[in-house]
């Protein structure tokens, strides 16, 4: 890592060494933009989910922005203000150098890429492009809602003949969608699925939704799309029953078709922290409880520390065998004080064998560096506090770091890596 602390002078040098040198598996991130399109995405997006003028006019005044500026100034040996940083990062450094520096100091062994980010696929490098910056070849996460929308598009907008919207057409959508899900299950480059239903219609997914209920919403939605000049086909809260029905079909397919003899691919859920299109009132992890119970053998990963609902998510992971908690995106999206609070909450009841680190970095390589640097720093400080109050000893703290940064993801996603070989 870049010098965030002198390990030899740390109060617990062995723990500090483990925190800052253990290779990490990033279990959820997005692709970096191509060099020629990088300018289209404001660098402020690495520390804020705001958009437009809310991002460019105000985000730099946030505490996460100030922290990020200070840490990037240390990394790039420049002044810690964003005007100067942008001049250095976007004006003087080559794109390749930025990637090499950020990944070089991040100690990220492998990244699992959700590479179907809506609206940005053409602007981003493919997931395999990133292999040049990691020690191991990276893997894919398949976004279910993209497959759903592609299936609907192929049935109703795939030819010049206007398909009637009826139960037969709905079943064709299901068949096309489920077929693509099965292909992904059998694709060894894919290690997980992801759902962004939190953005589309909320986490209160009903696995008992009927095809008749789905069709009732499909009919006016397709009619509206055909009468509109807007060609964007995007599921939303008006299609909630359709969303729930199709997602349930995917979960049935995933949970009953393991890869090999017993590898049921995990499904990651966006929960909580996100941009302004997220339905915050329907983004609490507890809304997933019905789904969790309906598919008890389906591994479910709750993303982004479920912030601001971290304590609730930790509870779910503690009482349901098939639930894991990711603690990504809060680094670097919230303040250090907030990060410490969230990490303490996840440690309250969540088994340490069910915690997974990720960066949720996207577009810019600096997101990977900041997420790794901040997560390691916060882990060290929280674990030291727990040692001092005798909740755990230092050897237990060392093992916790190895679990949450590497071992847990390696096991859950069947990556077949060795921590000893990765050092």
From TrEMBL:
InterPro entries: Amidohydro-rel, Metal_Hydrolase. Residues 265-372 form the Amidohydrolase-related domain. One of its GO terms (molecular function) is hydrolase activity. Gene3D superfamilies: Metal-dependent hydrolases. Pfam families: Amidohydro_2. PANTHER family: AMIDOHYDROLASE 2 FAMILY PROTEIN (PTHR43383:SF2), NODULIN 6 (PTHR43383). This is Amidohydrolase-related domain-containing protein. It comes from Melampsora larici-populina (strain 98AG31 / pathotype 3-4-7) (Poplar leaf rust fungus).
């Amino acid at each position: 890592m870049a010098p965030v602390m002198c390990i030899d002078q740390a109060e617990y040098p062995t723990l500090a060494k483990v925190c800052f040198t253990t290779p990490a598996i990033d279990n959820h991130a997005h692709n970096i933009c191509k060099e020629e399109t990088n300018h289209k995405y404001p660098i402020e997006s690495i520390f804020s989910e705001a958009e437009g003028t809310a991002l460019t006019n105000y985000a730099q005044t946030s505490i996460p922005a100030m922290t990020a500026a200070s840490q990037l100034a240390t990394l790039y040996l420049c002044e810690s203000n964003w005007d100067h940083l942008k001049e250095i990062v976007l004006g003087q450094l080559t794109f390749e150098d930025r990637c090499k520096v950020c990944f070089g100091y991040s100690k990220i062994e492998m990244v699992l890429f959700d590479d179907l980010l809506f609206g940005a696929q053409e602007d981003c490098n493919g997931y395999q492009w990133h292999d040049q910056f990691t020690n191991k070849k990276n893997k894919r996460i398949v976004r279910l809602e993209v497959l759903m929308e592609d299936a609907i598009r192929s049935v109703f907008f795939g030819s010049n003949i206007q398909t009637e919207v009826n139960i037969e057409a709905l079943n064709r959508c299901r068949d096309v969608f489920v077929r693509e899900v099965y292909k992904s299950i059998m694709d060894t480059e894919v290690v997980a699925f992801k759902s962004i239903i939190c953005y589309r219609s909320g986490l209160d997914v009903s696995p008992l939704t009927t095809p008749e209920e789905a069709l009732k919403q499909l009919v006016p939605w397709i009619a509206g799309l055909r009468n509109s000049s807007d060609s964007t086909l995007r599921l939303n809260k008006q299609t909630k029953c359709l969303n729930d029905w199709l997602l349930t079909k995917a979960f049935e397919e995933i949970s009953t078709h393991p890869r090999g003899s017993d590898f049921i691919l995990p499904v990651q859920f966006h929960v909580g922290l996100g941009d302004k299109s997220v339905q915050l009132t329907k983004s609490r992890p507890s809304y997933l409880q019905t789904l969790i119970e309906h598919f008890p053998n389906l591994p479910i990963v709750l993303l982004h520390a479920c912030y601001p609902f971290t304590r609730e998510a930790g509870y779910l992971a503690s009482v349901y065998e098939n639930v894991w908690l990711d603690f990504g995106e809060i680094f670097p999206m919230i303040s250090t004080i907030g990060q410490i609070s969230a990490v303490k909450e996840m440690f309250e009841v969540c088994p340490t064998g069910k915690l997974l680190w990720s960066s949720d970095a996207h577009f810019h390589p600096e997101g990977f560096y900041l997420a790794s640097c901040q997560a390691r720093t916060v882990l060290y400080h929280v674990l030291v506090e727990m040692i001092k109050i005798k909740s755990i000893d230092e050897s237990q703290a060392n093992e916790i770091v190895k679990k949450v940064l590497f071992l847990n993801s390696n096991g859950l996603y069947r990556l077949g890596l060795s921590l000893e070989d990765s050092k």
